[in-house]
Amino acid sequence: MRRAFDPPRRAAQYLRMSTDHQRYSIEAQTAAIAAYALASGYEIHRTYADPGISGLRFETRPALQQLLTDVLSGDRAFEAVLVYDVSRWGRFQDPDESAHYEFLCRQAGVQVVYCAEPFVNDGSFAAILVKHIKRGMAAEYSRELSAKVIRAKHGLAAKGYWVGGSPGYGMRRRIVMPDGAPGQLLQDGDRKALQGHRVILTPGPAAEVETVRRIFRLYVVGGYSMVGLVALLNAEGTPALHGGLWTKSRVKSVLRSEKYCGVYTYGMTHQDLQGRRRGTRRLRLAGAWRPVISRAMFDAAQTSCRQRKPWMEDAALLDELRTAWADQGALSAKIIAAHPATHAPSVYKARFGGLLGAYQLIGYAPTPHQVRSAEAARRDRPFTRRPPRPTRSNAELTAGLQALLDRTGRITVDAIDEDPALPSAAMLSQRFGGMAGVYAAVGYTPTRRQALLARPRPSAGPRQG
Fold first, then answer.
1. Side-chain half-sphere CA neighbours of 265 within 13 A
2. Which CATH class is domain 9-142?
3. SS3 string of 66-90?
4. Cβ-based neighbours of 114, under 8 Å, separated by 6 or more
5. How far from chain centre, in Å, is Cα 95?
6. Residue 43's beta-bridge partner residues?
7. What percent of the chain is helix, strand and coil (3-state, nearest 5)?
8. Which residues belong to any copy of the Recombinase domain (predicted)?
9. What is the pTM of this model?
10. Residue 32 C-alpha from the chain's centroid
11. Within its chain, how far is the Cα of 45 from the centroid?
């Protein structure tokens, strides 16, 4: 028990909050910890703060990392760490992870004290039990909040409201008032001021809209390749997103995005506390906003893209590298990416286990720097040679769909995606010209909702397999 004339014990305080909108503000935590320290005989000598950082992951919290580093190294001037409550220490999805970091402090002779909790962290059975329950509650709060946010976003997206991030090139975000009246345009970095406001997409500046239309026109009608479009746009000085240079990936993102024909696609991927994975509640809403190009032009671009991507044999890919070598006198990832006769460097890396493997097959001697870089990358993530993709005919795919129909009695997007014997519903839709073609291939009569969502693509008929 501490006596009144004992000197104050030296302590550090750890502060954390996720957003500015929550009640656990840094100022509120500081005031509560200061009052506790005064009443309990602590004197705060150092502050560790993670403002605006989630408590889910240790690797994203530099202040907590520094705190543990100082504690374990012995380079500290305190004997206790004061924390507002268990949730401020962390909302780790595994409660044992939270206990592990506290154990490291205790093992080094530093006690973790929770100032606003109703229990004393003295190692008693009651304290251990209540503390573990609190850790589980902190983790469960994050899981419940994540599920609520996902449901709310999906509901807003189903009404045509934009709940994503950047709108991309040629599009802008516009505020919609609670009464449906259009509000101001939002620029990059802007946020809506009131929670009752909603956001929709709208075509952006006239120059960007015309560039989008020109990209589609030159690709479909003019026969330009993506690399050719990159060279043309950069040579003309046409700025890309945020004023940068055009790249193949930026051109591809324009050509492959349905938003330019007024279609809102949401939930293609799913991000939750377990990470990012393929979405299970995908939404596709036609006519969500004013289109920049026609549906026919977009479908023609997708057909052209598929027709320009035949599977190439190894020898043909190596011939491309020999051509680039002869033209430039050297080879590198940058040269390969810029040369009009070659694929992207990632194609050769995936096919030959890295660029060095491709260089060796054509007799090219890489520079020492290239060798060191490749060896460092191989240590971080070993390459494996990707086998050729098997090509499945329409008849094989139809047989697989028929087996699914016989087994489940229905054909749905989710059922197709969950069947390990079938490719994705998106791939089948591309092969058969839309979900309507998929249904017709096996004689399945779709429901009214499926029929409404299965919009046929007249200009992208079924591919012959």
1. 12
2. alpha beta
3. HHHHHHHHCCCCCCEEEECCHHHHC
4. 83, 84, 85, 86, 89, 121, 131
5. 26
6. 10
7. 50, 10, 40
8. 181-311
9. 0.52
10. 37
11. 40
Sign, CA dihedral 305-308-312-317, equals negative
Q: Look at residue 150 and give its three-state secondary structure.
A: helix
Amino acid making up residue 317: L
Give DSSP secondary structure letters for 410-445: ---HHHHHH-TTS--HHHHHHHHTSHHHHHHHTT--
Beta bridge partners of 298: none
Q: Architecture of domain 207-307 in CATH?
A: Alpha-Beta Complex (3.90)
> Which residue in the block uniquely carries the two structure tokens 């809102």?
264
